[in-house]
Design goal:
CATH class: Mainly Alpha
Number of domains: 1
CATH architecture: Orthogonal Bundle
CATH superfamily: Winged helix-like DNA-binding domain superfamily/Winged helix DNA-binding domain
């Protein structure tokens, strides 16, 4: 009998709660189709800083790669995690 499958991350859990406002804004911008250079220009930050925020957000959400992050963003699976706080 096979054991349970791999544990899937819960994007609304502790990791999502630890996202900074900048990380949430950057992930929303990615979801909306902005490029890294557009996000950097809008936030008046370097692309390296934007990449660092994305890497940190991926770690908090337990997402392994950028391709997986983009897939989840476009599927709407992270909408609750990256919503602006009330």
């Amino acid at each position: 009998m096979p054991g349970p499958g791999p544990k899937l991350p819960t994007f609304g859990g502790d990791g999502a709660k630890r996202l900074t406002p900048a990380e949430r804004a950057i992930l929303r911008a990615l979801r909306d189709g902005q490029t890294l250079s557009q996000i950097a220009a809008d936030l008046k930050r370097s692309e390296l800083t934007i990449r660092t925020h994305i890497r940190n957000a991926r770690a908090k959400l337990e997402i392994r790669g950028t391709h997986e992050l983009r897939r989840l963003l476009h599927a709407g699976d992270l909408d609750d995690a990256i919503a602006e706080p009330d």
